[in-house]
Automatic annotation (TrEMBL):
UniProt membrane topology term: Multi-pass membrane protein
Protein name: Ring finger protein 121
Keyword annotations: Membrane, Metal-binding, Transmembrane, Transmembrane helix, Zinc, Zinc-finger
Organism: Seriola lalandi dorsalis
UniProt xrefs under InterPro entries: RNF121/RNF175, Znf_RING, Znf_RING/FYVE/PHD
Annotated RING-type domain residues: 231-281
Length: 332
């Protein structure tokens, strides 16, 4: 039926263009079902792009070449100037979705984006103040660790909903496949987007705080002596012994025998992505520190976030550049 309908539409379009150019369209699309509307638009698209195979091949070639060149440029930029690359990528990750969601009137995303931006802006403001308040490092690590957990859980739930929908489990609850899939994909996007954005903001704040507080030195040479009962991340005293169970948080001892507050070292390793001792630079044994496998940093999750960072921040820019080239060359 779809093939017959398409031929009929092509015929209408052909006759309309040659013999009845000034007459209005003879059928009302608004009265058609969604499936029939899609067929009409599909047929019109084929009629519009008929005999344009050479132009389409040229556009595809431009797209492939641009993607390859852009990838090489981004890789070289990241290797040679990582700070400027991370800063520009973070800014685009923050702004690009705002443009598209505002244009499409996705108010639910705009609401969550606004709440995230307000809280993160306040946390970032606290992290960049000099002198740094003694409570700021713990506040920063707690917020971004909480955001990391929420985004990870949201992504897992969204992925589970998508898989359940693919296996037809949604039919047991009488939920339409398109509704279940939209819900799952939305949760998956929320989790991944705010996960990667939170990690990038956390790394920026961690780098800034590490240079102003505690015992961390980027050069590797410590400038202050670390006492046995002081946390090298926040510089505050350790009140709970390693062997004791804390009411709010526990105390962790690394393989180098340096001790830290639970929230500080978790934020340092998981959120700040620094898998080394903040004082002596010895590599952190994450398996020993996080005995529960669900608490360990997930390498595949981190790689997925890196891929999403490229997809959200740079892919729209590259596609826009390709469209500009096609416009200049007169390709449609």
């Amino acid at each position: 039926m779809a093939g017959v309908f398409e031929v009929e539409v092509d015929g209408v379009e052909h006759d309309h263009g040659l013999e009845h150019h000034d007459e209005p369209n003879q059928f009302d699309i608004s009265k058609l079902s969604p499936e029939e509307k899609w067929r009409v638009e599909h047929a019109r698209m084929h009629a519009k792009h008929k005999d344009h195979e050479a132009m389409h091949a040229e556009m595809v070639l431009i797209l492939i070449v641009t993607l390859v060149v852009a990838q090489l440029v981004l890789v070289q930029w990241k290797q040679r100037h990582p700070k400027s690359y991370n800063l520009v990528t973070l800014f685009q990750m923050w702004v690009v979705p705002l443009y598209f969601t505002t244009k499409l009137h996705w108010w639910r995303f705009l609401t969550t984006w606004f709440i995230f931006s307000v809280i993160t802006a306040y946390i970032s403001y606290r992290a960049t103040r000099k002198p740094l308040a003694c409570t700021t490092p713990r506040l920063v690590y707690k917020w971004f660790l909480l955001l990391y957990k929420i985004s990870y859980a949201t992504g897992i739930v969204g992925y589970s909903v998508v898989m359940f929908t693919l296996f037809g489990i949604n039919l047991i609850f009488r939920i339409k496949p398109e509704d279940a899939m939209d819900f799952g994909v939305s949760l998956l996007f929320y989790g991944l987007y705010y996960g990667v954005l939170g990690r990038d903001f956390a790394e920026m704040c961690a780098d800034f705080m590490a240079s102003t507080v505690g015992y961390y030195s980027a050069s590797g040479m410590t400038t202050k002596h670390l006492s046995d009962n002081i946390c090298a991340v926040c510089g505050q005293p350790i009140l709970v012994d390693v062997s004791e169970e804390g009411i709010i948080e526990n105390t962790y001892r690394l393989s180098c025998n340096h001790v830290f507050h639970e929230f500080c070292i978790r934020g340092w390793c998981i959120v700040g992505k620094k898998q080394m001792c903040p004082y002596c630079k010895e590599k952190v044994d994450l398996k020993r520190m996080f005995s529960n496998p669900w608490e360990r940093p997930h390498v595949m999750y981190g790689q997925l976030l890196d891929w999403l960072r490229y997809l959200v921040a740079w892919q729209p820019v590259i596609i826009g550049f390709v469209q500009g080239i096609n416009y200049i060359l007169g390709l449609e």
